[in-house]
Amino acid sequence: MDVRETFKQFELDDSEYNVLQTLYDEVASGNSGITVRELSKKTYTATASIVRLAKKIGFYGYSDMLFSFRKTQKESVEFRTKDTLSSVLVLEESLQTMDRLIQDIVSGEFDVIVLDGTGYSNYVAQYMCDKLTELGISSTHISPLDIKLPKNPLVIFISSSGETKDVIHKVDECRNAGYRMYAITSKEKSTLCRKISDKIVLTQEAGTRYQNYFVGNAIILMENMAAAIYSLKNQ
After folding, report:
1. Domain segments of the chain: what residues?
2. pLDDT tens digits for 3-52?
3. Whether 229 contacts 102, CB under 8 Å
4. Which pairs from 14-20 meet CB under 8 Å and 24+ separation?
5. Which runs of E-coded beta strand occur in the chain?
6. What's the predicted TM-score (pTM) here?
7. Sign of CA dihedral 229, 230, 231, 233
């Protein structure tokens, strides 16, 4: 939903515009389950007035309006990324996983984003960490076992093979600690993917031992994620 167009179309007053803009901002920041009472407190508007507004602009009620805002937000993220990433991602589900990861990053729910990789994957971890830092998001590429992490980190493991023993060990330790985890890999059936359900699988297309496109494709992934994160943070 375009809030400005809705404002013009239905000749809303400033208070009504504020309600819609606040709802849009809350959903965009990851608070997709905001209740009508929570919105009422944030906008200093009676719940009955919010329900009337929802009906005024064509919805059955608040829940219907909230669902429309959530659907618009999800489609917006997927539209911006799908075309560019179609040749990079192996699984269609990876787009949905990427969308969840983006929403988790911008939600503010996690104290720090930890990016972990070894070998060439460490280059990707460092690059992603730098990108997130530029976007104002607290992040580190130091091993999650080498530093004392805040109470609620989000850990992203990057491994082309998904079989690196050191990475698998860290996954087990992070699971025991109850950390939220994502995996970026090129092997759908790897140990890493069996241990982490939220996985983004990239193409590798290794023609010879000197041709491995995983790192490059991971960079493309991060550039698209960074664009989506920037857009969500600045709406």
Report:
1. 3-74, 86-233
2. 667 767 888 899 999 999 999 888 888 787 889 999 999 999 999 999 99
3. yes
4. 15/43, 15/45, 15/49, 16/53, 16/56, 18/43, 18/45, 19/43, 19/45, 19/49, 19/50, 19/53, 20/53, 20/57
5. 112-117, 139-140, 153-159, 180-185, 199-201
6. 0.63
7. positive
pLDDT digits (tens, 9 = 90+) for 144-176: 887 777 788 999 999 999 999 999 999 999 999
Alpha-carbon distance 235 to 226, whole Å? Answer: 14
Q: Return the SS3 of 169.
A: helix
Query: Up-side HSE of residue 100: CA atoms within 13 Å toward CB?
Result: 15
The residues, ordered by sequence, that sit 6+ positions from 231 with a Cβ below 8 Å of its Cβ are: 76, 80
- Helices 93-107 and 62-85 cross at an angle (nearest 10°) of 120
pLDDT score of 79 more than 50: no
Q: Would you tell me which CATH number, out of the four given (3.40.50.10490, 3.30.1360.120, 1.20.1070.10, 3.40.50.10540), belongs to the domain 86-233? A: 3.40.50.10490
Nearest one of 169, 142, 162 to 153, comparing CA atoms: 142
Top-tier CATH class for 3-74: mainly alpha
Q: Report helix angle 93-107 to 214-233, nearest 10.
A: 50
